[in-house]
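Running log. JK asked me to keep both predictions on one page so they can be read side by side. First protein, sequence followed by its tokens:
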Amino acid sequence: MNNSKLLALSLCVFLFGITQTFSQQSIINVGDNDIKVQKHTIMEQFAPDLVVPLNQRLAMKNQRKEEIKRKLAILDTLDVSNRKRRRLLHDVKFSPFSNRFDKVITVNTVFEDAVENNK
């Protein structure tokens, strides 16, 4: 009885440790993988003049990936708390039109002219 409880507890701790390790490694992966865009959309059947062409959609997707990389590079240089950093990472990945990232950047911006005038 006591051995089975100890075995179950050690298994739970082991699984928890594995999930924590994997979650730290996969925060945001913006690699140069093949970008897949649906070639024919359903909307093309009914309103082909409203649909953006395939090459334009690929260009927009590449532009979005570059924007994410730029924002991640900016986020790495900012001095913000871990909680705010996690929220900003979530915004960068899942809600690209959020104003939270822009607000943090403008708050932490120090202009060189202002620094030189204060000396």
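And the second, directly underneath as requested:
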Amino acid sequence: MTSVPPAFRPFATYWRLSDQQMRHFWSAVAKSQYSQPSTWRQQVFLSWGRGRDTADHLIHTISTPKAMFEVVEALIHEGRLGAQEGRGIEECFLRATDSTGRWKNEKRHDHD
């Protein structure tokens, strides 16, 4: 199994993924050939380490709930994640999402 890079750990913590979910989700993303997971993986690595607020910025920009559901659905379709495990990860996403479809505790901006 692919080791989980430091760039992904803040996401797993924010979404409250179990250790197993974190490892399986990252392994699926790392091996994926589909566009949504591959693009997301690339954006995480390209943006990581650009300041102390990088993780928060990435969670609320390239990793919106909609984007992450698309990533998980692509991983299920590709066969990188089993449907049951993918739905479990999506449940974690739902628990971290508010009634407006944004991550809970997201900082609101005047132009939003």
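Observation for JK regarding the second prediction: Helices lie at 9-15, 19-31, 35-47, 54-60, 65-78, 83-95.
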